Amino acid sequence: MSADGSIIVGTNSTRPFIWEANGSLTFIPNLYADQTRQIGSAISGNGTTVIGYVRRIIGETTIDSPYVWNEGGIHEALPLLPTARRAYANEINFTGNLIAGIAVLEDGTTTTFIWDQFHGTRDLKSILVDLGYPIEEWDSFTISDISEDGTALVGNARDANFNSVGWQITNFASGIPEPSTLVLLLLSTAAALRRKR
Question: What pTM was computed for the model?
Answer without folding.
Answer: 0.86
